[in-house]
Each structure stands twice: as C-alpha cells, then as structure tokens.
Amino acid sequence: MPASRVLNPDLRRSYPRAVRASGCYVYDEHGTAYLDACSGAIVVNVGHGNPEILRAIGAQLAEITFSYRTHFTNGPAEELAAELIEVAPGDLSHVLFTNSGSEAVEAALRLALQFWQERGQPQRTVLVSREGSYHGATLGSLGLSGHTARRRGLEAVLPQWPRAAEANCSACPFGLTRSSCALQCAQSVADAIVAAGPERVAAVVVEPVVGAAAGAVPAPAGYLRALADICRRYDVLLIADEVITGGGRTGRWFASAEDGVVPDLIVLGKGVSAGYAPLGAVLVGARLWDGIRSGSGRVGLGHTYAGNPLSTAAGLAVLRYVREHDLPARAAAVGADLLRRLRDVVDRRGLAADVRGRGLLLAVEFADPAAAGDGRPGITAAALVAAAQRRGLLLYPAGTGAVQRAVIVAPPLTIEPAEVDQLVQLFAAALDDMDDPAASDSAVATKGADR
Ligand SMILES: Cc1ncc(COP(=O)(O)O)c(C=O)c1O
Asked: How far apart are CA 149 and CA 146, in angstroms?
C-alpha cells in the first residue's frame, strides 16, 4: 500500500482501511470484521449504515444541502431544534447548532460570557471546571479540560481557568468513601468559585459521567444536585457537557437529569447525529434566552456549516429513531446486563478491576499491579485495545494522568443479544491474550464473515 499522505494519529503505525460498516460491525479492506464495542468514539448510537437514517439523508440530499444561517433558516434545523426541546428537561427552550462537540463547548462558553456582559457583569470571565475531565480539542474547550496528556505542550497558550477536584468514587481525590464524604468533591467546586471571587465566575462546566479522561465515571449520587445548589448560591451558570452522555447513551436522554437537575446550558455532540454527519448543539435555558433576547437580541457566534440542512436532517432522523425505538430504555437494560457480564469475566480471571458506568457507557479499569500485589504484569489500556483489535473487537482507551488502565465499552444502543454474547467472548479472549503474548500475535480478527 502506498505511504499515507494523511496525518494519522500515530505516524509510525499503519492503519487498516475501513471500507464499509453495518450495524455493530466495521469491515476493513481485507474483509476483516470488527465488532464496534465503542461506537467509534462513543458516537454511533444507532449503529452503522442504519437504513432509516440513510433514507432521510438521501431525501435531504435531493432537496437542499446548504443554506447560510444569516440568509435562511431551514426545515431540518427547525424540526431538530423543536424535537430536541421536546426531550430536554425543564426550561431549556432553544438550540444553537455547531459541527462538533468542541465547537459546541466553545459556543456554550461564549453564550455564558455574552449573557453576563448583557447583564452588566462583564467581569464574569472565569470558568470553573474539574480535574480529570475532557471538553474538547480547541484551545477554549481544552483550556477547561483536566486532561493532562491532551494539554501537554499547550499549557502556555491555554486559558488558565481554575479546576476543582474530580468527583470519582473509584479513586476519591480526598481518600474518602461515599458513606461519610459529605460530597467533598462538590465542596471543592464551591471553594474554587470562592477562591476566584464569585462575582468573577461566569459558569461551572462538568461532564455528568466523565468519559475520555477517566472512563465512564458517573457523578456520585447527589453530586449534580449539590452543584446546582452551589451555582444558585453564587449566581453562577451551570453548563453540562453531555457530548458523550446526551441522546440516550446512559439510559436516559440526558445524564444530568439523574438528580433532577436542569442546567442552564447542555452541550451535545457525538450521538446527536451518531456519526452520520458532523453536528454539535447547545441547548439554551430560559434564563439565558431571556437575558440575551431582552438585551442585544443578537447571537454573533457561528460557524459557516453550523445548522446546515444535511447535518441537521441526519440529526433529526437519529433523534426520531432513538425515540421510536426507545433506545434510552434499551441502553439501561442492555447496559446493566453487559456490566454484570464484564464484571464476571474479570472476576473469573481473578483480576482486580473496577467495572462501572451508566447504561451503555461502561468502562473496565484494571488495578495498578503494584496496588493489586498479585505479581501479574498489569494491563494497560493501550495493550488491551491493541489485543482486542487483533481479535476483531474495537475498544476505546480512556484516562489520563494516574488513570492509564481503563477501557471504555460503549457499543451502539441497538446491539443485539447475540452480539453482546460475542462482545463478552472477544473481550475475554483479548484479556487472555494479555497473559499470553504468543496467542495475541497469532489471533486474527474473523475474515470475510458478516458478523
Ligand atoms: C465530554 C466531551 N466533550 C467534548 C468533546 C469534544 O467533542 P469533539 O471531539 O466532537 O470535538 C468530547 C470528545 O470526546 C467529549 O467527550
């Protein structure tokens, strides 16, 4: 194969070429099938090549693919916004579209800053986020992210906003347990607001279930409610980054609703168009909407492709499919079963690991062998993901800093029972390969099989 002209993530590696995909499977140019147990990057919620989505995109292609937002609105954008608001909690009432999760996070930040400017408080420019978090790859969204590996080399140019402690009961930063911790992690957000000066803080930004940076770490019970109370106490906006969690993956439409919380802004990406077209969105609550509408009445930010009819038609078809098939409920049920079975696989091998998550956003984090003291070499995320891919199973490595041994398991919400069986078998086989590198080298993904 000729040398690639694409700047791939690892320039020393040769990547298989994905040529087609269907349901839970991706096929490479040799006909090798891969069971997509992480939906790409936790994106393909309705499965690959879903005929209903393809039909809707085809119909839209024949109508209109681009119109510019200062000239026109368009049907799919209007319908998608209206239907997102139907499933959104509380007083979220309007939608701003972008082309990615990072752009949507940036847009949410800018809306928050604009809101305070219009309220006569332009000094509110501080954004509080948390360690062990990921909010995107652009400088603003990365500036919020407590993802040490992805920040590396950029510290000098990133905005220096304060980060509170993470909320991770699997590795509590305070060494406490949930029964007696009094949510010290939530208090740390309050402390960060007070240290910055509440009158200078625009918003708090959190992932309700932490994805890439920590591996499917749900907020402790009561944490989001406590954060909402803290934000109210200091009159600070609450932004929920639901780029990974939004749209049904965690067993409900929005993970932030778990504590009955209604954020001022909810950020969406990934599953909102499920990989069928680039799309991100910000759901805007009544307070912001009223503030901006009765102020300047203008939203100046936007990207050329934002809200284009093709991407929003894809998003609309995905939303309708998720609704019609009640995929949030399915994610909750299938996820509970898969979590139990992954835990069983790990336990039967005597491995020390935390198996966790919500709905079909799951992760397995293996203990550091030094801590486990079992004499085994220890499993890293990178090694397990590589072994799994050789077996024909796609997993997503998560974590940064101290978290280096977590893999995310997040198949399409449409996964069938037989595919769950196969996922569990392949996961177990990849784990066994970790003990036996020779087996791992000879393991090959199934060729030619339509599985
Ligand atoms: C929680 C969260 N926010 C934002 C982003 C950035 O989204 P994108 O990669 O679409 O720019 C991601 C991507 O992984 C994410 O997980």
From this structure: 9
